[in-house]
Amino acid sequence: MPVRPLAMALVVLGGALVISALLLQNTDKVPALSVTTLDGQSIALADRQGRPLVVHFWSTTCVPCIVKIPDLVAFYHRIPPHTIEFVAVAMPYDDPERVVTLQQQRELPYPIALDRDGALTAALGEVRFTPTTVLISPDGRIVNTWLGTVNFQALEQDLENLATAAAL
Fold first, then answer.
1. For the chain, what is the mean pLDDT?
2. Lowest mean pLDDT among 50-54, 79-83, 127-131, 137-141
3. Contacts for 109 with CB less than 8 Å, ≥ 6 apart
4. What is the pTM for the complete model shown?
């Protein structure tokens, strides 16, 4: 697999030093994989049916992932319904019971899936760090990938650009 350009930044977040990395735009097509959420919904990566997909990889043991949950929830609520699909994917090493417990305790409104066999993390560039957020276009291309804390402004701008391109 080709190595992608990587830009890294050190950011101080709540007194903690966070390494944030942004993988530059990638036009690779995603494979024909589906992920099943905890509530049984199937989400296909490649078959977007006109809507972009945000895939957010996280872990119950990842402190930045847990700290940023309120921001992720706020982002999820800001996006107009039926304009995108969103799924948070727990890493293969996560204990499924902990994932379900955290979802219930935090009353997470977005779909959550388990990547028990690691197929999804492998398919989207060997995701090894959490959080990692991947934006997939309606035609199944990887538009952008963020390692570390996602830049929600950049993500929303990418979504706006996709909507504008679709309208043309």
1. 82
2. 79-83
3. 73, 76, 77
4. 0.81
Summarize pLDDT for 115-156 with one digit per residue, the tens: 988 988 888 877 888 999 999 998 888 899 999 988 999 999
- 6-167 folds as Glutaredoxin (3.40.30)
- For residue 3, what pLDDT is reported? 36
C-alpha span between 93 and 149 (Å, rounded): 20
What token pair was written down for 96? 């499924």
- Chain centroid to CA 50: 18
Sequence-distant (≥ 6) Cβ neighbours of residue 92 within 8 angstroms? 115, 116, 117, 118, 121
CA separation (Å) from 109 to 50, 105, 118, 126?
23, 11, 24, 27
Which residues sit opposite 31 in a β-bridge? none
Q: H helices of the chain, where?
A: 63-67, 69-78, 96-106, 119-123, 152-167
